[in-house]
Design brief:
GO molecular function: metal ion binding
Keywords: Iron, Metal-binding
Pfam families: GBBH-like_N
Protein name: DUF971 family protein
CATH architecture: 2-Layer Sandwich
Radius of gyration: 13 Å
Shape: globular
Organism: Fodinibius sediminis
Number of strands: 6
Helix content: 10-25%
Largest sheet: 3 strands, antiparallel
């Protein structure tokens, strides 16, 4: 785990359905909002403590069945963000390392197209 890893910018485009993060090591990540919502890290969404820190990148590569939007993002300390979704859900705390680990770009996830 890289304790120095942190975003230098976070941009949301609800119209494009994307959250983009530029990282302090020069990496750029783009996440579909549907993929982020489906990979919410809260206990309820993960199905219990045994599934914590698991995620499924395949959600970043599918056409979303419904429109997902971010209503607000708040930083949690120096290690995470909390996303407030348009479906009313806001329990998930997305840690920097978790976001980086689920990056769906070609360099981080070469098996995807």
């Amino acid at each position: 785990m890289n304790n120095d890893l942190r975003p230098t910018s976070i941009e949301v485009s609800n119209s494009e359905g994307v959250l983009a993060i530029d990282w302090n090591d020069g990496h750029h990540s783009e996440y579909t909002l549907f993929g982020l919502r489906k990979n919410c890290p809260c206990v309820m969404c993960r199905g219990g403590h045994g599934n914590m820190n698991t995620f499924d990148r395949s959600y970043f590569f599918v056409e979303p069945p419904r429109h997902i939007e971010i209503e607000d993002i708040r930083q949690v300390g120096n290690h995470a963000i909390k996303i407030f979704w348009n479906d009313g859900h806001n329990n998930g705390m997305y840690q920097w390392q978790t976001l980086r680990d689920m990056c769906p770009c070609e360099a981080c996830c070469p098996q995807q197209e």
